[in-house]
Amino acid sequence: MPCHDIVFLTEDASHDAAINLINAEAFGPGRFVRAAERVREQGPHDRSLSFVGSDGGEIIASVRMTPIFAGPTEAYLLGPLAVRPSHKNLGIGRELVRIALAAAHKTSSRAVLLIGDAPYYMPLGFARTRPGALSMPGPFDPNRMLAACQGDVDPMQLEGMIRHRDCG
């Protein structure tokens, strides 16, 4: 088994081409029609809360955080999270999520939301939201909407439209 020396870095503009490649490998062209992508199109992600994994200087993983409102609640939308096939199943994606959550919890944001697989994300601190309580600009499976909240925010109480913070 190859030895990996993974370093986690805050994303910067020099990582964009590698991140685009990683996301294309992971999700294909279908990624552009997802409801989460409709939200991401409304404004930029927050580079200060977005991270990459590097192995020997090569960017091999990425997670991005987009500032959103979930109804009236200030939050972030986590994703896309992607790891190069050569580095899957090494815990890199989980570590990127932990790093992004820790960074988000240092902000005024009250929650981090995502659309994803509960068995993967729940051990990382995410919980189910109330199906149908949150809406997005496009179809999505409300049973896959998860949130990691802080303070007195309850994932089951989140409700309203998910939109980029630039959209008010």
Describe, in plain words, how this protein is organized in 3D.
- The protein is an alpha+beta fold and 168 residues long.
- The protein has 4 helices and 9 strands, in the order E-H-H-E-E-E-H-E-H-E-E-E-E.
- Strand 2 and strand 3 form a beta hairpin.
- The longest helix is centred in the middle third of the chain and has 13 residues.
- The N and C termini lie far apart (49 Å).
Give the CA-based shape. Answer: globular
Percent range of helical residues? 10-25%
Estimate the mean pLDDT confidence: 92
Q: How many DSSP H or I helices?
A: 4
Look at the helices and sheets and give the structural class.
alpha+beta
The major pleated sheet works out as: 9 strands, mixed
List strands and helices in order, with pairings:
Elements: E1 6-10, H1 16-27, H2 35-40, E2 51-55, E3 58-70, E4 73-83, H3 92-104, E5 111-115, H4 118-121, E6 127-128, E7 134-135, E8 145-149, E9 160-164
Parallel strand pairs: 4-5, 7-9
Antiparallel strand pairs: 1-2, 2-3, 3-4, 3-9, 5-8, 6-8
Keywords:
single chain, 168 residues, alpha+beta, nine-stranded mixed beta sheet
